[in-house]
Amino acid sequence: MLTPSEEQALTPRQIVAELDKYIIGQHDAKRNVAIALRNRWRRMNSPVEMRNEIIPNNILMIGATGVGKTEIARRLAKIAQAPFTKVEASKFTEVGYVGRDVESMVRDLVEQAVNMVKAIRKEEVKPKAEEAVEEAILEILIPSNNDASEDKVLNERTREGFRDKLRRGELEERKIELTVQQGNSTNVGMIGGGMDEMTIMNLQEMMGGLMPRQQKKRKVTIAEARKILLEEEMSKLIDMDEVKEEALRKAENAGIIFIDEIDKIASRSGAGGGGPDISREGVQRDLLPIVEGSSVNTKYGVVKTDHILFIAAGAFHVAKPSDLIPELQGRFPIRVELNSLTQDDFYQILKEPKNALTKQYVALLQSENVELSFHDDALRKIAEMAFNINSEVENIGARRLHTVMSHLLNQFLFDIPDVIGANAHLVITDALVEEKLKDLIKNRDLSQYIL
Q1: Residue 67's CATH number
Q2: Is residue 441 domain-shared with residue 402, that is, in the same domain?
Q3: How far, in Å, CA of 37 to CA of 246, rounded?
Q4: Which string of b and e fits 310-341 if b means at least 16 CB within 10 Å?
Q5: pLDDT digits (tens, 9 = 90+) for 38-80
Q6: Measuring CA to CA, how many Å separate 182 from each of 72, 215, 238, 362, 372?
């Protein structure tokens, strides 16, 4: 695993090499997102007087479902260790209507950034928190004796004996009484009618702060107590003001927002200027200031969107990219067409990526001590069948491999461990693939069987 400093300094070629570990093909798309990511590092290291003038080159990905658009964006965020949120443009509504407003995507991004920074801070304070948890559990088991007497010496010896047992894991199932904090249930949703999302969030936070948290005594095992106390201790050691400040900086300078199905809010070519097209255009106009650069209020503070990287994607089967309003088109200067997947691509997807479906199933069955292996001819047969089904029914890209593999292996997954016991070795051959999937081959109307 790369360290954060190494990830931030990756060259475009190195970024593409990282993406290649998980995504087959689509070299143009990988190349463009790699340049966009490197440009963020370049901006942060550019002369101070120019830093705020350099705007990100947002990307519009055009391609059918299942060709890797979302996966490229998600993997890019992981490589950059950047806050990432995915939204569907079709879920938004024009301001004033019931539904999510476009600013909610920025609030989601900030929430991701806060969780990310908080997780990093928790790891930093974890050793100190674990020491405090050990002392807290010892205090419950053997309360300390502050008297200057022989009893105090005996008490200390007993505590040290229990400390050794705790560290060896000998007391994990022992039950102790623990005082835990009960979360507040401020049911603002019941009074939220007519309020915007931001007002409801602020009201929830305010009511949560005003209402005292209730305490409750519970009997739990030491293993459970350790988890509860560790979370409490880590939260005490973290400065949430610092977390919020860093999260806002991270969201503003490194955040990535992936807007899927952007073609669904484009006005249809040749359509009249009325009905749903007006609402779609309204959503685009609401989206425009966010992408152009504006300030959005969140419960953690104001976020400027000027340097957030926006990656939009759509199949554009009915509408065309030129059907988006001109101002919005101008904010996505980099356009990348993703290629439809070939039969050979399917074969490579089954075999090469670090998270290949075949490797996922091998790992699943390892948990049952069952060995699973695939003949190369079997992988080619699976790829051929998935490709043919996509050609004859609806093309859902690489997602077809999930449904075909599930159909192929479902019986084995059901029979393990009752019929097929531990230490078995399952070998998937091309003949077995033919046999298991023959009902799919015979039936051309596959929509009732396959997604």
Answers
A1: 3.40.50.300
A2: yes
A3: 20
A4: bbbbbbbeebebebbbeebbebbebebebeeb
A5: 998 898 888 988 888 888 889 999 998 888 898 998 898 888 8
A6: 41, 6, 20, 42, 46
DSSP readout, 114-159? HHHHHHHHHHHHHHHHHHHHHHHHHHHHS----SSSHHHHHHHHHH
Q: Which two tokens stand for residue 158?
A: 């007993």
Sorting pLDDT into bands at 50, 70 and 90, what band is 306? very high
| Residue 205 CB burial class (10 angstroms; 0-12, 13-18, ≥19) | middle
Residue 153 lies in a domain: yes
User: Cα–Cα distance between 91 and 1 in angstroms, integer?
Assistant: 35
Mean pLDDT throughout 379-388? 92
Strand pairing category for 214-221 and 371-374: unpaired
Q: How far, in Å, CA of 281 to CA of 267, rounded?
A: 7
* Residues of the chain by 3-state class (helix, strand, coil), percent to 5: 55, 15, 30
Domain identity same for 123 and 225: yes
In whole angstroms, what is the distance from residue 240 CA to residue 8 CA?
25
Write the CB contacts of 350 (distance below 8 Å, at least 6 apart in sequence). Answer: 356, 357, 358, 374, 379, 382, 383, 401
Give the lowest-confidence range in 148-162, 249-263, 283-297. 148-162
Name beta bridge partners: 40. Answer: none
Handedness of CA 270, 274, 275, 279 (dihedral sign): positive
Domain residues for 424?
343-445
User: In this structure, what are the phi and psi dihedrals at residue 352, rounded to the nearest 5 degrees?
Assistant: -95, -45
Cα separation of 64 and 257, whole Å?
Answer: 20
Q: Which residues pair with 178 in a beta bridge?
A: 218
Q: What average pLDDT does range 182-210 have in this prediction?
A: 54
Decide: residue 92, CB within 10 A, 0-12 exposed, 13-18 middle, 19+ buried.
Answer: buried
Handedness of CA 321, 325, 326, 331 (dihedral sign): negative
CA-based Rg of the chain, rounded to a whole angstrom? 28
Which residue type, as a one-letter code, is found at position 211? M
**Within this chain, do residues 120 and 105 fall inside the same structural domain, yes or no?**
no
Q: Both 177 and 262 in a single domain? A: no
- Measure the CA–CA gap between 296 and 229, rounded to whole angstroms: 36
